[in-house]
Amino acid sequence: MDAVIIDYGMGNLRSVEKAVAAVGGTPAISPDPEAVRRAPRLILPGVGAFGDAMENLRRSGLDGAIREATTGGTPLLGLCLGLELLFSESDEFGRHAGLDLIPGAVRRFDDSEMRVPHVGWNQVEPQRDDPLLRGIDPGEYFYFVHSYYVAPQSREAVLATTDYGGEFCSIARRDNVWGAQFHPEKSQSAGQRLLRNFLSF
After folding, report:
1. Rounded to the nearest 10 degrees, what angle do helices 13-22 and 188-199 cross at?
2. What domains, with CATH codes, occur in the chain?
3. How do residues 102-130 score in pLDDT, each as one tens digit?
4. What is the pTM of this model?
């Protein structure tokens, strides 16, 4: 087992599991905080509302286990809602505190300017070199489905950006914590490459 996919009752767990296995990984899905603490790598997927997700993480004790593991140096990759949960807070259906692993906020796209949610293929532009992006060309397409985007407090946390009515952060990083707004498991060869890169950490 080289990665634990965190099961907190919300997320496309099986498709992420299959995608990790397809690139040579040996993933395990677990709702157990102790498995999270012992994991060599963590993947936090997610589909749904921020507040519900954080309530599930707190109720199960997974929030503390995630913080302990990442403080100890365990690499973590958040996907879609999983990226958003890494941030300090969200204004989705009220204000909700997040895991606060990456300082910043989660904001809703302005639906007066564009169609929301943002659905479909869009380009990702790296802002600096990073091992997560090894072998991925600038402007590579990934598959997105989201109504909210992350706004890191520090520009240093912005690893890549995407344009949708303006530039937003589509990949964030702080130390050993990464997050992608798109779905690698739905992004064909580019998504496979990103997952393979993560498994090398």
Report:
1. 80
2. 3-199 (3.40.50.880)
3. 999 999 999 887 899 999 999 999 999 99
4. 0.97
